[in-house]
Write a structure and sequence with these properties.
By secondary structure, the protein is mostly helical. The chain has 30 helices and 4 strands.
């Protein structure tokens, strides 16, 4: 019975309260004219808790002329959306949250010095309305906006008074006042919303990202008739080189030219005026006199007329000619001598043991040529600003050379498969290249030898583990590079069957496999056939297929003799030749 009475009471209470809740929920937002009934009065004020009187008047004409003209009052003052929510004398109105509509600018502003200061409790730090205004917000392209380029200094000067005054008297401020749109303002150097404090910025950041934004522009420098290459010549100077080397004390642009009050060198107030240079340089170089301070920081040899630059330029030219001439002649002398010794080593008698037949040498030569061209054109495509792109010309040329070389590599791969399947020497090569347990024992023996544990080295047959590693690495790399290269080339066709991310993965695999292959060739293959002191400058087997019996016995002692194509061994060839010579002589 009690439960029934309780349920009846709750039903009556709900029936009484529900219409009220529904009425409140169904209320429309407060219209602007309702707000302006009070806030349109010019003498409407309120006194806060600390006794400060605030004017609450809102100019309707100003509001309708702003960029927020289509917004209603409660679109911004969301805590006052309904009439019954209007605050009484004890209610504190919430600040307008601009991030509700301007999310990205608010987020970047929050990461700047002003946003950080606000979070740390500095109530005087600038907010959105301090820069953009309150009810009179205008686009930055409007001359009436506080963020218009001719008014930015005055806007920032509300808080940064001295800095604004210095900027307005500088060459930058004067140019902006004359209406030059490309003149830098506060937000061009300190960033627009994520405002930066540049006092602790590195010299490289100041030169490259702050001053360099304008002064590295050839178009701008030409339009203002300024000396070109200010940033480049600074980086080439001692200060720039020290900064690039990690120095935090090296002078930057502002160290000499100033931060805000930047003036022309002809202005007697300028820190780089002839009469002030000794004082400016003396900040870092105590005792710097007139002769020291007259030295140029921005040395541009394209400039003419100044005696020091003319002398310096001619000395530079003379030394360039001297370097090219002397080093060129020395290099020519030693190059010819080296070539003669290489030719003599190649023609030396005694290389009678056959290591590669004609077909193998041709395959190797085509593989070598296509691989090198693939590497050079591939990295030229990957790094279009490098010297490689200049060597191979336009992007189209590089791309097609790369594709042609790739096709050649695939062709030589099929050629080798055919050779292995159809030729007896090819089948023998394949069987000799198969890895076995002996290779693991050879690796262990050589590792112990290289570590100085055991003086005994591994003894190889026709091919040891170094050749086998190279052979199967080429097989693996050709398959991987060929498959990914074709996917990238025919990406439109591939994406008819596979997701687009397969192409992205193929590009990544192709790039890093190319790095792996090139480094493996340089570190492993080039050592064994070129850089090893016992074969330098080259193992000539790749050219004529032959090595000396001494090398054969030293490197492959378990292979007694190397078979010639057709089954004739080098040893038998040598023996037959001796018999023939003996018959003729007799």
């Amino acid at each position: 019975m009690k439960i029934c009475r309780l349920m009846m009471f709750l039903a009556i209470a709900f029936a009484s309260v529900f219409p009220c809740v529904r009425a409140f929920a169904a209320q429309d937002p407060v219209p602007d004219d309702k707000c302006l009934e009070c806030h349109g009065m010019k003498d409407l004020t309120v006194t806060n808790a600390v006794g400060r009187v605030r004017l609450l008047f809102t100019d309707e004409a100003m509001l309708k002329g702003s960029s927020h003209r289509t917004n209603s009052c409660v679109d911004c003052h969301r805590d006052l959306r309904f009439a019954w929510e209007h605050p009484d004398d004890n209610h504190v109105v919430e600040p307008v949250n601009c991030a509700a509509c301007h999310e990205r600018p608010s987020a970047t502003a929050g990461a700047g010095v002003h946003g950080v200061a606000l979070r740390e409790g500095t109530i005087s730090a600038a907010t959105c309305k301090d820069c953009h205004g309150r009810h009179d917000v205008q686009r930055h392209t409007s001359p009436d906006s506080p963020t218009y380029f001719t008014r930015v200094a005055a806007m920032c000067g509300q808080c940064h008074i001295n800095e604004a005054e210095e900027l307005q008297s500088s060459v930058h401020g004067s140019a902006a006042a004359r209406g030059r749109r490309d003149a830098p303002t506060c937000i061009d150097c300190h960033a627009e919303h994520q405002t930066e404090d540049l006092r602790k910025a590195s010299s490289l950041k100041i030169a490259g990202q702050v001053c360099g934004r304008c002064h590295a522009s050839e178009r701008l420098n030409t339009s203002i008739r300024a000396t070109r290459r200010q940033v480049g010549t600074f980086l080439e100077s001692y200060h720039g080189l020290a900064a690039q080397g990690g120095s935090t004390r090296a002078a930057n642009c502002a160290s000499c030219h100033g931060w805000h009050k930047i003036l022309a060198s002809s202005d007697p107030r300028s820190t780089i005026h002839r009469d002030n240079l000794s004082k400016t340089c003396g900040q870092c170089h105590p005792g710097a006199g007139l002769n020291f301070s007259q030295g140029r920081i921005h040395v541009d040899y394209a400039s003419t007329g100044e005696l020091g630059l003319v002398v310096n330029g001619w000395v530079r030219r003379i030394y360039l000619v001297l370097i090219v001439g002397v080093i060129g002649l020395l290099g020519l002398h030693n190059g010819v001598a080296w070539f003669q010794k290489v030719r003599a080593a190649f023609r030396a008698p005694g290389r009678t043991v056959v290591r590669m037949d004609d077909s193998q040498r041709r395959q190797h030569l085509v593989l070598l040529t296509s691989f090198i061209l693939l590497a050079l054109t591939g990295f030229a495509l990957r790094f279009p600003d490098s010297w490689l792109s200049w060597v191979f010309g336009s992007e189209d040329t590089r791309r097609w050379l790369h594709r042609v070389a790739g096709v050649v590599l695939l062709v030589v791969g099929f050629w080798h498969v055919f050779y292995v399947m159809m030729r007896a020497e090819g089948r023998r090569l394949f069987l000799d290249m198969l890895p076995g347990f002996q290779d693991w024992r050879d690796i262990k023996a050589n590792v112990r030898n290289l570590a100085g544990v055991d003086a005994k080295k591994a003894r190889f047959g026709r091919f040891g583990y170094p050749e086998k590693l190279e052979y199967w690495a080429v097989v693996w790399g050709s398959i991987i590079m060929g498959a990914t290269g074709l996917m990238i080339w025919f990406k439109i066709d591939v994406t008819r069957f596979l997701p687009r991310w397969f192409i992205d993965v193929a590009v990544t695999v192709h790039y890093y496999e190319a790095i792996l292959a090139c480094l493996a060739i340089i570190v492993w293959h080039f050592y064994h056939v070129m850089f090893d002191p016992e074969v330098y400058p080259s193992n000539w087997a790749w050219l004529d297929g032959r090595v000396t019996p001494e090398w054969q016995k030293h490197e492959h002692p378990l292979e007694e003799q190397s078979a010639e194509p057709g089954g004739k061994s080098a040893a038998s060839e040598s023996s037959g030749s001796s018999k023939e010579r003996g018959t003729k002589s007799s």
